[in-house]
Specification:
This protein is α/β, with parallel strands linked by helices. It has two domains: 156 residues, 3-Layer(aba) Sandwich (Leucine Aminopeptidase, subunit E, domain 1); 310 residues, Aminopeptidase (3-Layer(aba) Sandwich), CATH 3.40.630. Helix content is 36%, strand content 20%. It contains 15 helices and 20 strands. Strands 7, 8, 9, 10, 11, 14, 15, 16 and 18 form a nine-stranded mixed sheet that branches. A six-stranded mixed sheet has the order 1-6-5-2-4-3. Strands 12-13-17 form a three-stranded mixed sheet, covered by helices on one side. α3 crosses α5, α6 runs antiparallel to α10 and α11 runs parallel beside α14. The longest helix is centred in the middle third of the chain and has 26 residues. The chain is elongated, with a radius of gyration of 25 Å. 51% of the residues are buried. The protein binds ligand BES, manganese (II) ion and zinc ion. The site of zinc ion has 5 residues, from β10.
Length: 494
């Protein structure tokens, strides 16, 4: 979608659809009132009939409103003015875009001052507008014709601002948000792609394709032999049951001098559980077990498009977890790159096995900080549901930065404990640790496991098992937490 900033006399704007906010039953914000006047009271006349329900997100599409150069006018109810907040604003945007998409208008103009709550700053209001419009126009087409696509989809959104002076700041935000939206869409595409097509090799190819697009980026793919030589016994143990060769994908964007910020993404392109086989129900969804990897790639794309002045790296351990005669077995003991031994009590707790070697590998980059992103545990979904990702870290500054970025980007995380006493659940009589911690607190013990490999740099872990994709009617990848990560990086640059 194309976005364009506008200002100048609102009543004189030429557009296929002018989108205006209305408070209560028929309270008009000043600019909506100006349009009403221009149309000789047409809007108030219609509103008096009561066709627009006052609840935030209700809409009324009008054709041929007299006195205007707009072909259509879309009235959107914002609800009670005093209660109108960011949540309601987002509802209003969603409603507006979903009416515009099939309306036949390929372009529209949002009169932002009539739609944005008083308490909301310009940057956030633009951020939400871009992200919602882009999210609503995302379509998966890799393996399916898009039969529900509108014949004449919305192509351009004009965002009208009252103050000419706001334009420069707004333009910056707009460009950034479009870059982030592109990153999110790519993350969705990668995660939605089925496991037979999206293999570790495919992910590696995508990283190389990104390098082609952005020559500033350096990409290195470590093959199985190299990983064996290095001693990545934990990672390789997971890949044993698969015919697909594992890959360790390393991306390096030296956008500034200094230590890198490293993002590590779990890249299980399919997780059947291995010998500890998963039940059949919903197993197809384990194609999404590379959502962390997809988020790292999407965030790198966003950062590269924004040309962030930042040294940023991505590290993606990628393989499949399948049952096979050669697969990992419960009770096997493997030696990780760190030298620590691990008793594999459950082959389905494989994410931590590939991540621990990737996290140890990060030490060689002398990182400023490391954030890993992983669809790590079903327990995290039990704890937090599908709205909030779990955040685990002992670094207070990092915690605050991630929490704030999540809030800003409307891609929130919730802090979970990374508490020493839980570590004892990982004790094993046969190895330095077991790969599972027992029945309870599974998201925490998984984080505790990773903590044993991240002692040499500031580190945070995001468990995105609940938020990376939606199930049911709207089944599909969400692109989370690319919004959060991009905002986190932007904040670090300022
Ligand atoms: N990829 C799964 C976690 C998962 C489960 C993500 C459901 C999204 C939805 C992970 O590899 C896994 O299987 N974890 C096990 C760990 C257990 C064996 C300790 C789990 O959560 O059941
Ligand atoms: Mn698993
Ligand atoms: Zn998994």
């Amino acid at each position: 979608m194309e976005f364009q900033l506008k200002s100048g006399v609102l009543t004189a704007q030429k557009t296929a659809c002018l989108v205006l906010g209305v408070y209560g039953k028929r309270k008009l914000p000043p600019l909506t009132a100006a349009i009403d006047k221009e149309s000789n009271g047409y809007l108030t006349k219609i509103l008096r009939r009561g066709d627009l329900t006052p609840e935030a997100g209700q809409t009324l599409l009008l054709q041929e409103v007299p006195g205007l150069r707009a072909e259509r006018v879309l009235l959107v109810a914002c609800g009670n003015r005093k209660e109108y907040d960011r949540t309601a604003y987002r509802k209003v945007l969603e409603a507006a875009v979903s009416v515009l998409q099939p309306s036949g208008a390929t372009e529209a103009l949002l009169a932002l001052p009539t739609l944005v709550p008083e308490s909301l700053d310009l940057a956030t209001s633009l951020r939400d507008a871009v992200q919602i419009a882009e999210a609503q126009s995302y379509r998966y087409t890799a393996t399916k014709k898009d039969d529900k696509a509108p014949k004449r989809p919305l192509k351009r959104l004009q965002l009208w601002l009252a103050e000419e002076e706001e334009q420069t700041a707004a333009q910056t935000v707009l460009r950034q948000e479009q870059a982030i939206a592109q990153g999110i869409a790519w993350t969705k595409d990668l995660a939605n792609l089925p496991g037979n097509l999206c293999t570790p090799t495919y992910l590696a190819e995508q990283a190389l394709a990104l390098q082609k697009e952005f020559p500033d980026l350096r990409v290195e793919i470590l093959e199985e032999d190299q990983m064996r030589e290095l001693g990545m016994g934990a990672l390789l143990s997971v890949a044993r049951g698969s015919r697909q060769p594992p890959k360790l994908i390393v991306l390096d964007y030296p956008g500034a001098k200094g230590k890198p910020v490293v993002l590590v993404g779990k890249g299980l392109t399919f997780d059947a559980g291995g010998i500890s086989l998963k039940p059949e129900k919903g197993m197809d969804e384990m194609k999404y077990d590379m959502s962390g990897a997809a988020a790292v790639l999407g965030t790198l794309r966003a950062a590269l498009t924004m040309r962030l002045p930042l040294h940023l790296m991505g590290v993606i351990p990628s393989c499949e977890n399948l049952p096979d005669g050669n697969a990992n077995k419960p009770g096997d003991v493997v030696t990780s790159l760190s030298g620590q031994t691990i008793e594999v009590l459950n082959t389905d707790a494989e994410g931590r096995l590939i991540l621990c070697d990737a996290l140890t590998y990060c030490e060689r980059f002398d990182p400023e900080l490391v954030v890993d992103i992983a669809t790590l545990t079903g327990a995290c979904v039990v704890a937090l549901g599908e709205q909030l990702a779990g955040l685990f870290t002992q670094d207070e500054d990092l915690a605050q930065a991630l929490l704030q970025a999540g809030e800003k980007a409307e891609d929130p995380v919730w802090r979970m404990p990374l508490w020493e006493p839980y570590q004892s659940q990982l004790e094993s009589p046969f190895a330095d640790m077991a790969n599972i911690g027992g029945k309870y607190g599974g998201a925490i013990t998984a984080a505790c496991f990773l903590a044993r490999f991240t002692k040499h740099y500031p580190w945070a872990h995001l468990d995105i098992a609940g938020v990376a994709w939606k199930t049911g009617k709207e089944k599909g990848a969400t692109g989370r937490p690319v919004g959060l990560l991009s905002q986190f990086l932007l904040d670090r640059c300022n």
